Amino acid sequence: MTWYDELYVGESIVHKTKRVKWKINHNAGQIGIYVIAPASNDKNLLDIIPAAELLQKGYPKKDLKIAGLAGSYDEALEVAVSIVDEVYRNTGAFFVRSYLDEHRSGREG
Prior knowledge:
Elements: E1 2-9, H1 17-25, E2 34-38, E3 46-50, E4 65-70, H2 73-91, H3 96-103, E5 106-108
Parallel strand pairs: 1-4
Antiparallel strand pairs: 1-5, 2-3, 2-4
């Protein structure tokens, strides 16, 4: 699992970002927390994943890059909109994955 250096974070959890990241990295339950990642397929822009889903043994976390965190599903939608809006304003296109890779380098763990 990789975290982008500059995460997009919802207002409700901005003050506890480090703690939420630590819990996700250490497989501690995070009910109500959502992670936002570049889409796992070419037809979508972003994936919104409940953090609790990452606890499943078979979940493919190894190649997952996390771009954002949110404290509720509605907030995750707002964060996703802000990501797509930023990408479009800066590039005039919707190439979210390449924009994030260029402008928000990632690190393991």
